[in-house]
């Protein structure tokens, strides 16, 4: 009797993990990739995928062989979007950033210990970075959006993540050492915006600014990404100013506090 809730919760957790993995890109993911990334056995993954497909939550693409999100997810997303009119609010800011800078602009949300890219607007500069797109997830503190959010979290929350950084950051911990992350967070708090100097992918730089909720906590972030020559020190102040202006605009539209430029203690 006592084991049933645990077993049920475990199944839900596994299903949620598979949905997130499939939802990383529009192309979905192959069975082998899902087995590797989830850490589950192949029979377990196949059984869960088949069950999700029977409910319309997933589809199996006969051409690519990948598992992709199904029509029920689209319907659920349409309903959920009515509660979170983020695209209507954030899209204009992304367009202004992309037009003003020529770089690709993004809007990300914090989900627990991760950031998830929700929206993208391509800039006019012909050479682009393809590290980030809709659905991509990073551990909090990784990439410019995650660093911008983490920098303005309460110090206790930052220290909790840093105390288990290797586990939290996973494969990103090699390039994002604790010392380097601490330095980046301190610089972000000082400047008001974060800079990712090609730590996720060499040569691909990014900058981010946090968007705050009604309690003054960083819950979303705007970011710009591009190639290293476009993010030289002389241009960073200009890009940072544009990012902070649009982040403040969205914060105000969402009814957030937005003026918080130091983490709460």
TrEMBL record:
<dbReference type="Pfam" id="PF01614">
    <property type="entry name" value="IclR_C"/>
</dbReference>
<dbReference type="InterPro" id="IPR005471">
    <property type="entry name" value="Tscrpt_reg_IclR_N"/>
</dbReference>
<dbReference type="InterPro" id="IPR029016">
    <property type="entry name" value="GAF-like_dom_sf"/>
</dbReference>
<feature type="domain" description="HTH iclR-type">
    <location>
        <begin position="9"/>
        <end position="71"/>
    </location>
</feature>
<dbReference type="GO" id="GO:0045892">
    <property type="term" value="P:negative regulation of DNA-templated transcription"/>
</dbReference>
<keyword id="KW-0804">Transcription</keyword>
<dbReference type="Pfam" id="PF09339">
    <property type="entry name" value="HTH_IclR"/>
</dbReference>
<keyword id="KW-0805">Transcription regulation</keyword>
<dbReference type="GO" id="GO:0003677">
    <property type="term" value="F:DNA binding"/>
</dbReference>
<dbReference type="InterPro" id="IPR036388">
    <property type="entry name" value="WH-like_DNA-bd_sf"/>
</dbReference>
<keyword id="KW-0238">DNA-binding</keyword>
<dbReference type="InterPro" id="IPR036390">
    <property type="entry name" value="WH_DNA-bd_sf"/>
</dbReference>
<dbReference type="InterPro" id="IPR014757">
    <property type="entry name" value="Tscrpt_reg_IclR_C"/>
</dbReference>
<dbReference type="GO" id="GO:0003700">
    <property type="term" value="F:DNA-binding transcription factor activity"/>
</dbReference>
<dbReference type="InterPro" id="IPR050707">
    <property type="entry name" value="HTH_MetabolicPath_Reg"/>
</dbReference>
<feature type="domain" description="IclR-ED">
    <location>
        <begin position="72"/>
        <end position="256"/>
    </location>
</feature>
<protein>
    <submittedName>
        <fullName>DNA-binding IclR family transcriptional regulator</fullName>
    </submittedName>
</protein>
């Amino acid at each position: 009797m006592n084991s049933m809730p645990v077993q049920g919760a475990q199944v839900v957790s596994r299903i949620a993990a598979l949905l997130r993995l499939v939802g990383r890109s529009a192309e979905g993911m192959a069975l082998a990739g899902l087995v590797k990334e989830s850490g589950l056995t192949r029979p377990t993954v196949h059984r869960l995928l088949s069950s999700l497909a029977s409910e319309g939550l997933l589809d199996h693409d006969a051409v690519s062989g990948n598992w992709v999100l199904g029509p029920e997810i689209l319907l659920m997303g349409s309903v959920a979007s009515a509660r979170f009119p983020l695209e209507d609010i954030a899209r204009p800011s992304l367009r202004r950033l992309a037009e003003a800078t020529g770089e690709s602009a993004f809007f990300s949300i914090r989900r627990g210990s991760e950031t998830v890219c929700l929206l993208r607007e391509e800039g006019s500069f012909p050479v682009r970075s393809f590290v980030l797109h809709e659905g991509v997830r990073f551990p909090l503190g990784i990439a410019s959006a995650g660093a911008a959010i983490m920098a303005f979290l309460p110090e206790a929350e930052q220290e909790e993540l840093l105390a288990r950084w290797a586990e939290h950051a996973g494969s990103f911990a090699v390039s994002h050492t604790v010392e380097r992350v601490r330095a980046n967070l301190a610089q972000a708090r000082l400047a008001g915006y974060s800079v990712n100097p090609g730590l996720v992918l060499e040569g691909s730089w990014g900058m981010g600014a946090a968007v705050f909720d009604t309690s003054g906590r960083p819950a979303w972030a705007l970011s710009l990404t591009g190639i290293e020559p476009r993010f030289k020190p002389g241009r960073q102040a200009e890009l940072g100013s544009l990012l902070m202006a649009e982040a403040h605009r969205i914060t105000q539209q969402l009814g957030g506090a937005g003026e918080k430029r130091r983490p709460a203690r």
